[in-house]
Design a protein that fits this description.
Length: 286
Amino acid sequence: MIPDTEIKHQVREFYDQVGWQTESDGFYQNASYEDLRPVSHDYIHLCHLRVLSHLNPSGRFLLDAGSGPIQYPEYLEYSKGYQFRICADLSFVALKEACKRIGNHGFYVVCDIAYLPFMSDCFDGEVSLHTLHHLQPEEHVRAYLELYRTLATSGKAVVVNGWDNPTLSIFMNFWISLYERLYTFFRPQYKPVDLGDSFSSPAGLSNTRGTFVRRQNAAWLQKEVGNLVPIKIWCWRSMSVRFLRTFVHERFAGKFLLRLIYWLEETFPHFLGKHGQYPLIELAKN
Ligand SMILES: C[S@@+](CC[C@H](N)C(=O)[O-])C[C@H]1O[C@@H](n2cnc3c(N)ncnc32)[C@H](O)[C@@H]1O
């Protein structure tokens, strides 16, 4: 087994040297895992804003655990009603970039989210987006407990992280693979969507395109975390980026399809939260 410290060192190096470097398109390398095409813009925008309805709208301190550089404009909305946003990250480059965006509104702390260097009960709100998956499985529980410990009474926290092989993605991946095989057969020049598999490197250590990632499933979360702290599972986004890039296109009523998906997510948030690709996990302290 690889020691935690080695993994964290490698994750930090990856984000400092690759993930938070700007590419020729003007976006961070990390944004290549997102669907930034115009056809998906409204859907992605609304999904990002979903976080707001699970946070207290105002307060003194909002913790952003694994803040990165606060890379999308919607992320700025989360702390608009708060006096300060505390950006916590292993990556110094991430925090320097975050500081360029929010300046004096922020405090910037290089730290590990599994060992938060903050007093108990101090944050009125907390967000942690796409970060817990960089921890070893045993530390996932620890990170949830740390978020809960540092949350103030009446505070609310939101964690977003992809599930490991959720039912809906297994189903969709079947159709995506079939579509890709047929398409390649008829048009050999067709290139299937490549999100860089190494992003989730099985050996645990990175190569040039990815870093350490371990995802969990809904049953694990409910058993290991739900028995210790109160959690609710909602839908952040049910469809994977691979699905969007394969099936959602302007010329094939892509916007309409995404409006339909969004409506389904709003109508069945718990079901699609558990079985879709990305849940929104809400923690509240009474
Ligand atoms: C995929 S990025 C997500 C950044 C941001 N939350 C977003 O959604 O754009 C993960 C971030 O978490 C940070 N990170 C990874 N493991 C961490 C840990 N154990 N403690 C603190 N930050 C960590 C990385 O340095 C990176 O900036």
